[in-house]
Amino acid sequence: MDYVSRTDAKAETAIFHQNKMALKYGRRDELTFYILLHEIGHMMLCQNSRMYEERYNAVFEAFNSASITHKVKRVEEELDAWKTGFKLSKRLKLYVNRRRFEQIKSRCVTTYLMWAVDRKIKKDKQNDGSNRT
Ligand SMILES: [Zn+2]
């Protein structure tokens, strides 16, 4: 795994075949940490190549990338990466604020869902109550 302190990445990504991941620079530490857990989750899913092939790639290859079946499988992989990252934090006994983690995960998952159904998120609908006390 390579570490690059600065990146121009527009979005976070795990590039398994290059053993790299890119995270946006300058985010709050807590947000970066939860997104890092998610990206590590992707790496862990990819590590088990037989499982990855059966669970995800078989569907990716069988369906056109514009099809809803292909897109929903991508969303499933994203959800699994969040779940895997969270489990890793538990295993390593790393502190995760569950409420914040779920909020950040939900915000990201919403973008995947909107992408899958080819919709844009309305700016005034983004507030999920995270500012409530
Ligand atoms: Zn992801």
Task: Explain briefly what this protein structure is.
By secondary structure, this protein is mostly helical.
Spell out which ligands are present: zinc ion
Spatial separation of the terminal alpha carbons: 39 Å
**What is the radius of gyration computed over CA atoms, rounded to a whole number of angstroms?**
16 Å
Number of helices: 4
Sheet with most strands:
2 strands, antiparallel
Q: What structural class should be given to the helix and strand makeup?
A: mainly alpha
Q: What is the beta-strand fraction?
A: under 5%
Apparent shape: globular
Order of helices and strands: EEHHHH
Explained architecture:
The protein has one domain (27-121). It is 57% helix and 5% strand. It is built from 4 helices and 2 strands; from the N terminus they run E-E-H-H-H-H. Strands 1-2 form a two-stranded antiparallel ribbon. A hairpin with a 4-residue loop joins strand 1 (13-15) and strand 2. Helix 1 (29-47) crosses helix 3 and helix 3 packs antiparallel against helix 4 (98-116). It is globular, with a radius of gyration of 16 Å. The site of zinc ion (ZN) has 4 residues, from helix 1 and helix 3.
Which short descriptors sum up this protein?
two-stranded antiparallel sheet, mainly alpha, binds zinc ion, 133 residues
Structural topology:
Layout: E1 13-15, E2 20-22, H1 29-47, H2 49-62, H3 68-91, H4 98-116
Antiparallel strand pairs: 1-2
The structure holds zinc ion.
